[in-house]
Amino acid sequence: MSEMILGFSIVSLLIWIYLLLFRGQFWQMDQRLPEGNQQTASVCVVIPARNEADLLPITLRSLLTQSYSGSLKVILVDDHSTDGTAEVARETAASLGKSEQLQILSAQPLPAGWTGKLWALEQGIQKGMELEPDYFLLTDADIEHDSDNVQNLVSHAIEDDRELVSLMVRLRCVSFWEKLLIPAFVFFFAKLYPFRWANDPNRSLAAAAGGCSLIRREALTRIGGVAAIRQALIDDCALADAIKSTGSHRIWLGLTQTTISLRPYDSLDTIWTMVSRTAYTQLDYSPLLLIGAVLGMFMIYLFPVLGILTGSLISVLTYLLMSLSYFPIVQFYRCSFWYTFCLPAIAFLYLLMTIDSAIKHWRGQGGAWKGRTY
Q: Structure pTM?
């Protein structure tokens, strides 16, 4: 038994050495959108919105009051809301004297083979094509944009010649459950899709964050628009892959402290729902990959704790390396230092969410979001 524990301890340590040194330095969280210069390229913003009346007075305002000097038009697609989303959007624009800058569309019924968000985006993009913008900014209705965000996105796209510039916006991190689980959500995403690798034209790995993605119109047209990924639940990464696998292969994904999501996740249940919606999708709905993920999560995050309990000094070193890798994202989210040492418990919760995601899929309940199941 002691030899088995020693063997597992060594394997776990080697995995963490690999992750720290050879996984695109994902843990450093250093890919940040730089401040940009004034640009005049035309931009069409498309916002799919379903029951977002509470947040739009803040989030839509942040777009209509951008410091951007170029043409900036906003198309909001009301996806069968029941809370007066369209009316609130209209009133927000009118209060700013920006009614001519905003166009509101009522989404058509959802056709077979589409997810709701992508169908709303498709309709907004098709309408936006009439404007022939240089870029489309696809953004969620819960995102409050920094006043210079469009300028910085466009500047980076032009000056660094990127067909897609995407931001992992700062998620809300106020409640206990948000502080415990939200930084880890970004950490795990970055481990799966190291930002440096996604940003390297010579690597095939592609990733994006759907909450804030600026796309060159020609690139979107080249891939056939969002219709090419119409069934994707993880639509942001599917879009990034479609763009990077063609054309110049130049996309960019980074972090920001100043453009933020206002979506609250005050309870474990709300975060659980968000994660379990697509966790099994990440595994291509494969039972074998699920088994591999369970074993991998156990070996990477849980075994070091068990090793410490049995007196393994190697596991102590592994646990310290694990905590070291997690510290930058804890610091980024301005959480207490002590959350750094909670990663094994956090990973266990995410493991349960992943298993639950698979169970829901097998029961025909997978991909449930905002009253729809895909």
A: 0.94
